[in-house]
Amino acid sequence: MIAFISALIVFLGVAFVMTGKTTATKTTSTKKVPTVGILQLQTHPALDAIHRGVVAGLKEYGYIDGKTVKIDYQNAQGDQSNLKTMSQKFMNENAALTVGIATPAAQALASAANKQTPVMLAGITDPSGSGLIKSDQHPGANITGTSGESPLKSHLDLLRKLVPSAKTIGIIYTTSDHGGEYNAKKFARICKQEGVKYKLYTIANTNDMQQVAETMAANVDAVYAPQDNGVASAMKTLVSVTNKAKIPVIPAVDTMVKAGGLATLSVDQYQLGKLTGEMAAKVLKGKATSDYPIKVITKGKMTINLSEAKKLGIKFPASVIKEAKTKGVIYK
Description:
13 helices, 332 residues, four-stranded parallel beta sheet, elongated, six-stranded parallel beta sheet
């Protein structure tokens, strides 16, 4: 009898341990991998660089796509209706967090999230002015992230250094791009303060660029192209027109220099995205968005295009070339 009871106790003990192991194994194997939805307004080099940076920033903190996180990347290709549909898709699949690349994308995500799911801003110009947050220091709800405001005064100084003979500057932006309009009008105010003549030109979409650029090229001596998604997407069209008129384009972003701009002091778009990804990782780990300040990057690196300078007959000052060599980028 004693032997039977002992055997029963051993059997129950083994069964208990095995059951515990099975439960633990089951718990581990069914642990939910969070979904991160990334919504990009459209394809162009600057936004693509931000996207790559976001993925790299998440990876830096252990969130690897397909292993420890599921990244659902959606590109609206400039279609506003796509932004709404894709944002709702993220909500339907219970995304743990979403990332908006370009202001319209962030606004669509904020609307779909309805102050619930965290939304990260990836390099958004003027996030409070676009109604996304209360203030940079205290976003106030479920939204935080990064802002890459252009060093506009430095852009004007660079333009005047490279094209000292320019009497009138053309400034072009997209009417539907809040960030582009914000940058263009702020640049215009700086021109006015500095006593520089300027003319503002607008496009409704990229289809307008050819005609507007031709009109602008006939009336100005140099062009400033701000951080603006529509202008960035139509950069090659803009440059094809201005090159014929021998007018330089000083853009706001390094990728726009690569596409035919003369030079700029550019905030690194990839690093901007990477910083956003790192912040997103911390939110996934539990950091609250409401009092997580917006991180703003304004310091740019010198980026020049030697081929474009040769086409326009412009010689870069030695100080500009030295800065580009030591701290920036040179496109040949």
